[in-house]
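Hi R.,

As promised on Friday, here is the backbone we talked about, encoded as C-alpha cells. Could you run it through your design pipeline when you get a chance and send me back a sequence?
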C-alpha cells in the first residue's frame, strides 16, 4: 500500500510523488486512483493509476536506499554482459522491457552493452546506433533521477557524484 507523499519509481516514467489517492467517476464506474506527479520535472502533468489494477500498481516500485544504490554501482563491474541483438527493433523492444521492469542492475548492464557496441562500431569506422544512444540516455535519466532524489542532490550533479564515489 502506498501513501500520499511517497516517492516511487513508476515504470519507465521515472521518479514520481504520490500527491493524492482519490475516487474518480468515469461514466457509471467509480474507481480509486493514485495520483502521481513527476518529482523532479517542473510539470503540471498528473498520472492516474487505478488502485485495483495490480499490473500498474506493481510498476510503482519503492526507491532504492542510499546503501542499495552504492552497492549497485560498486557491484556494476560484475554485471552480466548483455548479448548484442543485431535486429534494431528487437533490440529496442528488449531495452524498453528492461527500463519498464525497473531492474536497475539490468539497466546498468544495458548501458554497458550499448557502450561496448558503440566502441566496436567506432573501431570499425562506423557510428553507433542513434536508437541505442537514445535508450542509454533514457536509462541514465531513470537512474540519475533516482540517485538525485535519494541523495537529495541536483540531477545535473549526479554523474560527478558517482565518479567521486558517492561523495
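Update: got your reply. Pasting your designed sequence below so it's all in one thread:
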Amino acid at each position: 500500500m502506498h501513501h500520499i507523499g511517497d516517492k516511487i519509481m513508476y515504470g519507465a516514467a521515472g521518479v514520481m510523488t504520490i500527491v493524492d489517492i482519490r475516487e474518480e467517476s468515469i461514466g457509471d464506474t467509480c474507481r480509486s486512483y493514485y495520483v502521481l506527479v513527476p518529482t523532479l520535472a517542473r510539470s503540471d502533468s498528473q498520472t492516474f493509476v487505478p488502485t485495483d489494477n495490480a499490473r500498474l500498481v506493481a510498476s510503482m516500485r519503492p526507491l532504492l536506499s542510499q546503501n542499495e544504490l552504492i552497492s549497485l554501482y560498486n557491484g556494476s563491474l560484475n554485471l552480466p554482459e548483455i548479448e548484442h541483438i543485431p535486429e534494431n527493433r528487437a533490440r529496442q523492444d528488449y531495452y524498453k522491457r528492461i527500463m519498464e521492469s525497473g531492474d536497475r542492475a539490468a539497466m546498468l548492464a544495458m548501458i554497458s552493452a550499448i557502450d561496448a557496441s558503440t566502441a566496436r562500431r567506432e573501431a570499425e569506422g562506423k557510428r553507433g546506433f542513434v536508437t541505442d544512444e537514445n535508450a542509454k540516455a533514457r536509462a541514465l535519466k531513470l537512474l540519475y533521477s533516482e540517485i538525485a532524489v535519494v541523495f537529495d542532490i541536483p540531477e545535473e550533479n549526479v554523474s560527478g557524484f558517482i565518479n567521486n564515489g558517492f561523495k
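One thing I noticed while checking it: The longest helix spans residues 130-151.

Thanks again,
M.
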